[in-house]
Amino acid sequence: MRRSLLVVGAAGDLGQGIVRIASEQGWSVVAAGRDKAKLDTAFEGAAVQTVAGDIASEAGAASLWDAAAAAAGQIDAVVVTVSAANRIAPLTEWSSDAMADLLGANLLTHFNAAKVMLPRLPADGLFIGIGGGTADFVIPKMAPVSVAQAGLRMMYRGFARERKEGAAIRELMVVSMVNGASKRDRAQPEWVTDDEVGRHVCAILNSPEEFPGPILRLDRREQVGRADSALAKG
Question: 4-233 has which CATH code?
Fold first, then answer.
């Protein structure tokens, strides 16, 4: 029986690569996002089911799970690639409301998905959240992103530490610019591609015991699919 994968944020650069490679590798994929028309365009002609939903709240995450489970029959694994763009400005120019919105879009979305979906996964299931390398460094005028990514990493460590049984949880930090659909025209040769991220995610999905984490890093394409890639141990 084919295993089913729910990819949340599937229409984004990373999401498209994960959906594409997982489908090629035999997973039954449900691609989820807020815009059904965008999803249908991104995966037109592909053997992928699409569902619309929003993980901005726990209720939204639960509704999205229900829709995906109804479409697939069951969900064996979840990958959350959701992130939101931010304004580029020094911290002193950010308001508390703007910071709250940024954390809501980049951190609380993952929290809602993990809290709601982890207990619903089978005991041998896997939940993977995709984060970024700015958890460890600050790009000028982009400190709020680092705040959100550092919080995301600690949140996933917290979930992993608290779980005594049931589905496993990992965070994959992609510490590279990504050559995806929105950046093809300006991508540099050293950037990891969306398909390479997809292959690495599938390697984790297929053999999670070889990627114990809970925090994993993908810094460069030489690490793709390798269980001995650099890990930020939890």
Answer: 3.40.50.720
